[in-house]
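Hey,
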Amino acid sequence: MAMPKKIVLAYSGGLDTSIILKWLQIEYGCEVVTFTADLGQGEELAPARKKAELLGISPENIYIEDIREEFVKDFVFPMFRANALYEGLYLLGTSIARPLISKRLIEIAHEVGADAIAHGATGKGNDQVRFELSAYALDPDIKVVAPWREWNLSSRSKLIEFAEKHQIPISKDKRGEAPFSVDANLLHTSSEGKVLEDPSKEAPEYVYQRTVSPEEAVDKPEFIEIGFCKGDPISINNKELSPANLLKELNTIGGRHGVGRLDLVEGRFVGMKSRGIYETPGGTILIEAHRGIEQITLDRGASHLKDQLMPQYAELIYNGFWFSPEREMLQAAIDKSQEYVTGHVRLKLYKGAVRTVSRWSKYTLYSEEHVTFEDDAGAYDQKDAAGFIKLNALRLKLIAMRNKRNT
């Protein structure tokens, strides 16, 4: 790869990306632009600006942006229309954030005339794949620098030594071995590594940051109502909220009831298995509510087809193919299914659990007249079922007759 002339770095302001910033300046000898995304991780981002300036980045080359609304509206909500779960459990909180970060990296690169981007993902994880597949899909000519695949800073002690040599500020807790690694955004928190690496041992309670222990949650259940329009949530208890504010409020509600905890050993795209502790309180509420409104507004055929498509859709997101034609094709089918997914769902939250207790919509397909055990006033002729069963039984009877002849 030819030496880049200008690099846009995905920069958190933490120790690792600060070391990467200085390393890029030394190894590549080119201008570096930093991009720090506010995805609702709950951290103060002003220190990132100060640290970038301390490391020699001019103010006009420091980008710090609040992209929470775009994140939820254009990435999280489309994913939730599909009820996406990776390996049946994981709500894809880290996976869905990476394509948006890559999108902004590419856009900023075009704005400032950069010919390369850089990220801090390691060579063992999924994020390197997600960042780079998204970047190449948006700009096939972009160069991608992945320091973890290039440098010889292979241990925490070497990173600390590099930081001290180049006067990079180090928090006191970074001088020892960190107990675990954390990634957070408005959808979830993800913790992995160190104390979590042995899947035979229960995760210590201090790992959890966004939810109380279900055992310690309030003893009284809470009922909430979520309104939907064409598959997207728009209100809580009849109060309309923006996408980011709605998810933030659900995180607060779910967190106090211990909702949304997941201890998962997952199959990474790169081949190995890893153990992660995820907290997705608002997302867990939303997927339960969305399924609740779909129960009365989606036809059986459409609903079952969606459930068949969902694992492939979720895997595409997990593996970094958000900007692929196949994900867009699946999204078009999913979005078509949401045309009448409008209405309200009432949910009960209690001691780590959330469940639908009622749902209603002007587009409901539920007909009490047809399913009642009382007099249906001719809405359904039960005699019709006999012919229906006979036709569906015909092939089974033919198979049974053949088998009987040959025994």
